């Protein structure tokens, strides 16, 4: 494939991903030039493509990847040519064989972690890490409701929660995904596609769960609140079914003096110190065999539109990678 990358010039469906051949120049101050071994597909890429998370257009697409440093800009001191790195966030533009990226979003990879494992687990793992340890601090014995439990973030979160000693109810849409969720640590699984799960949650935990991690948004919002114990915490971190409509905040009082946060990784891994601490925590969990890569589906980079179609039609489990 010639050097280049996918760009979006008009928001819309997967057909809006347009391959543009282009040469990548020398990195500027604070940048590195990276040759990707593997690029992670994140649901956020779909929000960017659709305009649900609006970006100035035209824009590159993709927020995570791993590969080799080909060139370093001035004042980059923590990375050298030939280093193997992984990154999360920064300017979208990962759907490319070679790209420039801010060096402060990249972390050197331990030798034992392959680029493919890193691209599959880094962004999703950092997300699980801050959700479970910072957005709400899950403790042993607590009850957790986790949506999309067999998805990319879901499979990492399940393993981390199991390690902490939490009881996890996973929600998935099919029996096949239910088996996966059980295999990676869910103590209970509910199969649901309609947002009718709160009654089933209360059959398992009559008082309600301590925390809900909801990446689905519009379709699950009300039932997620209805699944919480008094003074429980709703952590909303995505909207794969669409945006949550405006709400009257008094609903939180009426349903049990609930807490609500809508959080994003950009605010939890904002500084270099936070990114390095999150990465060190995740790498030690991978090295210790506590977090393993779940199912990974590889697509050729040119098949990024198909990867998007598969992800948004709920056909996938685990992580999706684009291979240049
Ligand atoms: N806030 C943050 O910091 C942050 C960071 C990273 C990712 N995220 C969010 O985390 C979520 C998971 O990301 P991911 O990349 O790992 O994706 P993913 O979970 O692998 O894929 C999305 C899953 O959501 C479920 N889903 C439920 N309703 C859906 C609908 N109407 N349309 C599509 N999918 C639906 C599906 O699982 P079932 O078929 O089992 O229902 C689907 O497989 C996304 O919402 C993403 O935006 C947030």
TrEMBL record:
Keywords: NADP, Oxidoreductase
Underlying gene: qor_3
UniProt domain Enoyl reductase (ER): residue ranges: 12-322
Transmembrane segments: none
SMART domains named among the record's database cross-references: PKS_ER (SM00829)
Keyword Oxidoreductase in annotation: yes
Domain of life: Bacteria
PANTHER family registered for this protein in UniProt: QUINONE OXIDOREDUCTASE PIG3-RELATED, QUINONE OXIDOREDUCTASE-RELATED
Pfam families registered for this protein in UniProt: ADH_N, ADH_zinc_N
Protein name: Quinone oxidoreductase
